[in-house]
Amino acid sequence: MNMQAMVLSIIGKDKSGLVEQLAQAVKNAEGNWLESSFCQLGGQFAGFVEIMLPRENHNALIQHCHSLSNLQITLVPASEKKANTHKIIKLLVTGNDRLGIVNDIASALKGFDINIESLSTVCESAPNWGSPMFSASIKISAEEGFNIDRIIETLEEIADDLVVDIKS
């Protein structure tokens, strides 16, 4: 059997039991569920699943997923994983929400030799502050010896109220 690592991306109207149905589709295609990330945004379900499955079962998996619930499905080969010699750091960024804050953070991080591994953001009402609070959880990878203090300083320079903490 010729196995291949694939990434399945899914987006569609959220409904109860969708993850179980996806897991069943992967199992039926003789796939092994390796890693996944899901979320619900604006009533839509979105996710990514890395799976290992026989090449000859790709179409069967796609067809089964399409039959689930008008999902938009993409199945692409996974990139070859390289030995990770980078250090992983998790940052929590909080401050008053404003137009362009994610762009400003991404632009600030672009100046460093790092990779954004994951980014999760949320805006929540903060009655004590009088405006919505922005919060971002950012996982970055960088080569050993990078200056985390300089990254934090650069992010905090974006706005007076922006606070950056290292999460463990």
From TrEMBL:
Cellular compartment(s): Cytoplasm
SUPFAM superfamilies in the record = ACT-like
User: By its UniProt entry, which PROSITE patterns does this protein fall under?
Assistant: ACT
What's a Pfam family in this record?
Answer: ACT_6
Q: Which UniProt keywords apply?
A: Cytoplasm, Repressor, Transcription
Q: Give the originating organism.
A: Glaciecola petra
- This one is known as Glycine cleavage system transcriptional repressor
Instruction: Pinpoint the ACT domain residues.
Output: 90-168
Question: Where does the source fall among the domains of life?
Answer: Bacteria
Q: Which coarse location class describes where this protein primarily resides?
A: cytoplasm
